[in-house]
Amino acid sequence: MINQYLLKEVISHFDFVGSLLKCEPYGSGHINDTYLLEYKIPHMGVVPIILQRMNTNVFKKPVELMENIMNVTSFLREKITENGGDPERETLTVILNKAGKPYYKDSEGNYWRAYHFITCATGYDEVKCDEDFYQSALAFGKFQSLLADYPAEKLHETIPDFHNTKARFAVFKDAVEKDVCHRAKDVQAEIQFVLEHVDLAHVLGDMQASGELPLRVTHNDTKLNNVLIDDKTHQGICVIDLDTVMPGLAINDFGDSIRFGASTGAEDEKDLSKIECDMHLFEVYTKGFIKGCDGRLTDEEIKALPLGAKVMTLECGMRFLTDYLQGDTYFKTKYPTHNLDRCRTQFKLVSDMEKKWDTMNEIVSKYNI
């Protein structure tokens, strides 16, 4: 828990206007520490602000991370304005500190940043209805479309090899061999599952190297709750949580959405009989994503969307298992086997996708017009 004196120090170094009414923890993110601040401004009412302490154990170069966010949001603001949209609601607005920087480094060495809170919009942790999932797909597809002309190679890698599945596999093997927490003996079935799917760890990298898949600006954490849905129009209006925006593959963004949103159970569901990849939800998302991309993806990228779903699901499960073997140092956990439960749901989804592989490809072909 962050002490109040440190919070006061941080808040005093940002150009917030008005009288502070409230400062409390906010959201359900695994990585950063997030606070909701409310300020009372005369003749304007209450203005909410998001304040975050960046996790520098995960993001080793927070200054480069904020450079990415500033550059991408500035580019998005221009595109949104050109298209007649509202950049105040359709992309994040960073609040500069009093020194004019997009972050503040506190007296203990922590890095903080602040955003305007987008009101009358909600991020959902679970798919409650088809329309919300469809709207998130449109939003992430539009994110690809708007950034299609941005030079992806100029972005920093905020986490090196983040979706380099081959590199993730190497880290996994190292975690198994070192077994620092002596947990490997209890997860042999899960370890074997990864080893049996080693081909998936190489396929996307090989396709990129051969030129089949182009490098793009990617979000890399395309869960449903990273799209804000307007409370009145019920349209997906803003993609948030841009920490992992960097060069990558569009099909990885698609795949991460499917592994999270098309699952019939929670990411940490213990009863694996409840876990399937819902083909109806897969179709809902595929339709929205392809429409949102507005013709900016290549034919090869669209054909590879099911592959992106399977690889991203395996990779995520492998990451959860690796973290479990290493002592739960990356993802926040609520109980000792939390990462293990998470990995098992992902592996169950991979198995289910393999059973439904022909159906997934048929659905993608249906919307690849």
UniProtKB/TrEMBL annotation:
<dbReference type="InterPro" id="IPR002575">
    <property type="entry name" value="Aminoglycoside_PTrfase"/>
</dbReference>
<keyword id="KW-0808">Transferase</keyword>
<protein>
    <submittedName>
        <fullName>Phosphotransferase family enzyme</fullName>
    </submittedName>
</protein>
<dbReference type="InterPro" id="IPR050249">
    <property type="entry name" value="Pseudomonas-type_ThrB"/>
</dbReference>
<dbReference type="Pfam" id="PF01636">
    <property type="entry name" value="APH"/>
</dbReference>
<dbReference type="GO" id="GO:0016740">
    <property type="term" value="F:transferase activity"/>
</dbReference>
<feature type="domain" description="Aminoglycoside phosphotransferase">
    <location>
        <begin position="104"/>
        <end position="261"/>
    </location>
</feature>
<dbReference type="InterPro" id="IPR011009">
    <property type="entry name" value="Kinase-like_dom_sf"/>
</dbReference>
